[in-house]
UniProtKB/TrEMBL annotation, chain B:
Keyword Oxidoreductase (UniProt): yes
Start and end residues of each Pyruvate/ketoisovalerate oxidoreductase catalytic domain: 12-189
Upper classification of the organism: Bacteria, Bacillati, Bacillota, Clostridia, Eubacteriales
EC number: 1.2.7.8
Annotated protein name in UniProt: Indolepyruvate oxidoreductase subunit beta
Record bears the keyword Oxidoreductase: yes
Keywords: Oxidoreductase, Pyruvate
MF (Gene Ontology): indolepyruvate ferredoxin oxidoreductase activity
Amino acid sequence: MNKLMLGNEAVARGAYEAGVTVATAYPGTPSTEITENIAKNYSEIYSEWSPNEKVALETAIGASIAGARSICSMKHVGLNVAADPLFTLSYTGVNGGLVIMVADDPGMHSSQNEQDSRYYARSSKVPMLEPADSQECKDFVKTAFEISERYDCPVIVRLTTRIAHSRSLVEVEDRIEYKLKDYIKDYNKYVMMPGMARKRHEIVEKRMEELREFSDSTSLNRVEGTSKDIGVITSGIAYQYAKEVFGDNASFLKLGMVHPLPEKLIRDFASEVKTLYVIEELEPFIEDFVKSLGIKVIGKDLLPVTGELSARLIKERLLGAKLPKAPAIEENIPGRPPVMCPGCPHRGTYYVLKKLKLRVNGDIGCYTLGALPPTESMDTCVCMGASIGMAHGMEKARGRDFGKKTVAILGDSTFIHSGITGLIDVVYNKGNSTVIILDNSITGMTGHQDNPTTGFTIKGEPTRQVDLVKLAQAIGIDRVKVVDSFDLKELENVIREEVNADEPSVIISQRPCALLKNVKYEGTQHINDKCRYCKMCLSLGCPALVDRGDHVEIDEALCVGCKLCSKLCRFDAIEKAGDNNAKA
Amino acid sequence: MQKLNIMIVGVGGQGTLLASKVLGHVAMKESYDVKVSEVHGMSQRGGSVVTYVKLGPKVYSPLVEKGEADIILAFEKLEALRWLEYLKDGGKLIVNDQEIDPMPVIIRKAKYPENILPRIKEKYANTISLDALSIARQCGNIKAVNTVLLGVLAKSTNIAKETWIESIKEVVPAKFVDVNLKAFEAGYAI
């Protein structure tokens, strides 16, 4: 039976069909839907949102050594977090098969960098597969488990945004009955002390030799077409673009296994064609290898290492095509950057931060949007959890007075992911930083995943809830305050007080995400004739409030009725309009 | 079997993903090869969003490129303007006559372009505009804008109406099927 599936859904299906029983992940675009689909559709698989990618991978390793097939999914920057276990997992190898899904984001649709995960496969000496559509997503995951068990190693399957988030047809099959492998205590294999690890490293090198031979013979790497003029070596989404451009006018070496690369296959293919292209997104990973074999090839001298490729770009850059432009109607089309949603609880916090003119070390989540106009209240954002360490570092560099104008701000899920270690640093090393945790009861930006602070598991089952107040107190924070994000006055007072306190503090700014199903505001607001056009409400940056030049209007199709703007209005000009925005 | 490149453009939160999901189902039922490329994550928060839907005997790239779209289904006027250069010569534009101000306009750093629809129609004769928001409201739920627009789109293809209706029933959550079918019919009647 054929089904139309997202790449990520097909990965979930592949894991199911392969007999996987443990799936772990930390959500991150574009990888999130893999584990969401496993949790939703396949009750045979235990699944979890782990606190971060490192723990997710360690859980998967435990499951594998215990004899199960396990899968662990993350976005590209998540693999940085999981890199520590990854490199030594390569030495220990597996018992039940273990597959790591990593989703890169060329073009940075939803990321802070566009690193190329293929280098992780190379430096950790772990094989990597790369599918080019949803069918391959499913098939390659199953093959990856076979490789994992045959060669006693983890296997990374790399997706990119356009593979993970494109739907295409998938032939679904039955799940295999996978019998747990016996658990065998083997400290020479699983306890990586120097004496054992030295021996394992030899085994890893021998394994790489065998995998290189496998890469030359596997059907994951295949030659298509008969052209002797043009040859294209490519993989993943770049294969689809290249097919679109060259069609039958070129031969293709379509690589499904991108590490280790098939040396003999590449040499044979290159010797058959007059002009050889390597078409790949991001870094010249395949190209550098081909060049190292002494083969002449055209690639990144013409194609960019930044951003995504497209069929048009390949036509223009490689074939010199001059493509027609459509008639322009408007030259200056206003941009439409993402914004915090109407009703977003973060809006209250940002209003206060702007008013107090504080230096804000930001973090990764919906609230990163507070960096954009009109709030413009964020000075830095580097990676998950970085806000706290950076605020601490700023104070250590420039002294206490500088610290009094500086805060760290991050979400509940981000705090658990890797903010907590930064907070311990502040306490231990006598810092005074003020840390604001935006607790909106959910992991927001990735599309509403539960986390250890929400009290629910990935399956929506009630569980023990991490108490942020007690947690902060337990690591030595004496000043912990909880404030409603929409109580602007109280929030202002608390933040003012805490930045001036000569000890570290945690402010939990609390209000659930307005998109959550159980959040119900009544009706929408509208503006009456008491409005004096003072524009106070506009400073909130709510997309439902529109400046008409001489008056302000509320777009009732957008307003959710959170009433934050009413609180700011000094003329009682914002009042309830109706109930016609019932949640769908 | 014809090749059909469709783009669905709009503002994050308007329901473009549901529309593309229905469209994908329709294509599958009609035995097309099909690829649907979506945007998840950050731009879903009120940003400019685009979904590409390509159908044909065999589809490689999931992306529709500039000058290649047979149909653009625009949920908002400014977004129609933004993505218009993707329309092929003689391609069809279906545009919802709704204005959602982007943040630069809201804070008066930029102006919302005036008279978008007449100016588009001057250069792109094959344009249908409609007030899908009002139609959806009449049908009972303003969130059904997406199925109103799907109705108009359905009329512009030669795929059987029943296939669309079946797909809506399969994709839309059960309790919203009735209002969405009503919205679809209203769009189809335009």
